[in-house]
User: What shape does this take?
Amino acid sequence: KFLVQKLTAYTCDIPEFHRETQDTTRVAARCFCNVLFGPPGTKENLRMEGIELRKVVVKSKRSIETEPNQLFTKMIRKCHLVYVEKETPAHVYQFVMEHTPFRYEFSVWNERKEPARVVFRVFLAPFRYKNENDLDCRRNDFIELDRFVEEIGGGEEKTVTRESKDSSVLLPPGVTVEEILAGDKGDGAPCGCGWPRNLLIPRGTRHGMRTQLYVLLTDWNEDAACPELTQLKASVSYCGKQGSKYPDKRPMGFPFDRPLPWKTLDDMILGVKNSSVTDVTITRMIGYNECALL
Assistant: This one.
């Protein structure tokens, strides 16, 4: 009660309010680690023996083949139909941020003799220099971009591709007015839970914001709460699956949900061969509409 009263009193003082909320976040994180999620993470919890993630590349549909790992965002004008009366639609225009579609390419080597069901855990965080690269301080920087399952054959090196629009954190696409009028009602109304489809990545900067894409592969045979589930579709990573258990035994935010036994992210990559980090630049494109808006 004292903490709530204190935060309420600081609401008028914005800088002090943010400092207090940061302190509250740290207290909550310690409680989650010690009470709910157990002890700090271990190397054994992250490693998947026999699986090596050799390379990760991100390709935007705007960038040329010689420029991978470049993502782009822009402001666009969307038109919505609003029916004031039954037969007279009104056109409403809205400026929104959108990113250029992109895809991931993962090069995975399975040195086992038998096939492996692997869950790909994809995260993004701002780039940090060596003097501010302490992993324990960076854990809260990482946001989850995707989580999906793929089978890798025994003794196989496979390139797995994944489109950004298929992300397991995104809100399922809704049915538009035009589709309803055309008689297409879709597969039913989405649950309304999930990350907005146009906000998957940060806006970036005009000169390119440096970020790091971290990917961890773990064994889906061990992690799956429902062994028969082979795919993580729609917004299941953030919202779970209606009518059943949360499909992943690992806690949300894994492996960054608790302290880790490495000092930096580079040390973590060296100690876990089934993980990788890639530098990615996010550039905000300037257009006529954005200049007029800003």
About this structure: Confidence is low (pLDDT under 50) at residues 1-14, 288-294. The radius of gyration is 22 Å.
